[in-house]
Amino acid sequence: MSRTPAAPSAYRTATGALIAFLAAFALILGMTQARAQTAPPSFADLVDQVGDAVVNITTSAIVATREGPAPNVPPGSPLEDFFNDFLDRQQGPEQAPRRSQALGSGFVISEDGYIVTNNHVIEGADEIMIEFRSGRELEAQLVGTDPNTDIALLKVEADAALPFVPFGNSNAMRVGDWVMAMGNPLGQGFSVSVGVVSARERALSGTYDDYIQTDAAINRGNSGGPLFNMAGEVIGVNTAILSPTGGSIGIGFAMSASVVTNVVDQLREFGETRRGWLGVRIQDVSDDIAEGLGLADARGALVTDVPEGPALDAGVEVGDVILSFDGEDIQDTRELVRIVGESGVGETVRMLVYRDGATQTLLVTLGRRETAEGSGATAPDGAPIPEPSAEILGLTVSPLTDELREQLDAQGVAGGLVIEAVDPASDAASKGLQVGDIVTEVGQQPVRSADDFRARVDTAEEAGQKSILLLIRRAGNPRFVALSLED
Fold first, then answer.
1. Is 449 a catalytic residue?
2. Which of 38, 165, 264, 286 could serve as a FRET partner for 21 with CA atoms 20 to 30 Å apart?
3. Catalytic status, residue 223
4. Cα separation of 209 and 150, whole Å?
C-alpha cells in the first residue's frame, strides 16, 4: 500500500517564515517610499509657485552725519555711545544730512498690492521701494505698523493684478516639518533656503511672541520675508536670528501666521491694532503658590492687581486665578495675554476664576489695550499708626508710613508693611524677597500692621497649611510669593 508523503514540519515552518518576511519587507518598503515622498527631491516647483510674490524692500531716510573718519566699533556697544558723544562735542550738532538706505524682504498677500514685512525694516523710512523678482520696482505707502509683533503692512498701486501668497495654519506645523525661507539676505537679492521646524511657540522678549524656530538659513536682509510650508502657504514671517556673529548659525525665528494674520487684518481695516484689554496684573502659578491656594494643578493666571477697568467692573479680585477665558483653558500668563489681545474690543466673554476654594464664572466686557496703555487706577492712601518693627517668617517688617511711601514711590498703596531686613537663611531669602519690598497682603487679606501679619500666619498654621501667600510690591509691580510655614 502506497502513501502520499506528508510535508515535513520544518518545511512548513520555513515557508511560513518566508511569507511573513516578505510581508514585513513590503510594509517597510511602502513606509520608506511614503517618507521619501514627504521630502521632495527638489524644491524648484515650490519656488516657481510662490517666488513671484516675494519682494525685496529698500528703504531710505535722511539722517544727520559727521565729517571725517569714524571709529570702527561694534554697533550697540558702550564704546559706540562714547565715541558718538565725543564726536558731537568736537563737531557740534550742525552736520550735513545724508540719505541712509536699508534692505529687507516682504511678500504680497493680495492681488491689489498689500505687502507684509517687519516693522523694523521700514521704521523711520521716508521712502519705501518694492522690487519684484522680475526686476520691476514700485513705490510703497505705509498702511500701518505694530511694534509689539514687529509687523508692518504696506500698499503698492499696480496696473494689473499682482501674484500673491496665502497664509497657512501655523498651529498645524510640527517639529521636523519641512519649511522654506525666501528673501533678500545680506542684500544679495532673491534667495531661497530650506530647513525644518526646530521648535514652536518660542518667546523672545515681546508680550505677544509666538515664534516658529527653524534651521533654514536666515540672515540680515531676510527680515520680513515669508517662511513657507510645502503647500506654498506662509506660516511665519522671518523676524530674528540668534547668533554671536551676526550671521546664520541655524537658529532663526519667524513670527507665526496665527499672530500675523490677526494683526494684518486690523492694520488693513483700521491702520492700527485694536487689541482686547482685561485690565489686570498677573503672574504664573507656581507649585508652591498652587499649594497655598489649594489648587490641584499649577496652572492659570494669578491676579496680583486690579486697577480701574473691565476686570474691576466684572468683579475680579486680587488673588483670583483665571482658569479659562472665553472657553479656552489658561495654562499661564502668556497664554491669557495672547487670547485677550486677540479678542474683540467691546466683546463680552465668560471667564472662569478660582476664588476661596471654589470656581465661579464672571462676565467681562473688554476694553481696548492701546487706549488703556499707560493708565491705571490707584488705591486711596492709608495712614497707619507707626509701630515698632517685628520679625516674622524671616522678615523684619514695619508699617508703611507716608514718608516711606514717598521714598519707595508707593503713593497708590494703602496700608502695607515694608521689609527692613531679610534673614539670609530663611525661605523668604530663597524666594528673592528684598529690603524695600512692600507686603500688602498675607493669606490674601490686607495687612496694615505686624499683628495682622502674625494673625494670618497663625490662622494658616492652625488650618494645617504648609505655606502662605504674600502679595509683594516692588517698584510698583505686584507679585505673589508663597512662604513655607514648616520649620
1. no
2. 38
3. yes
4. 10
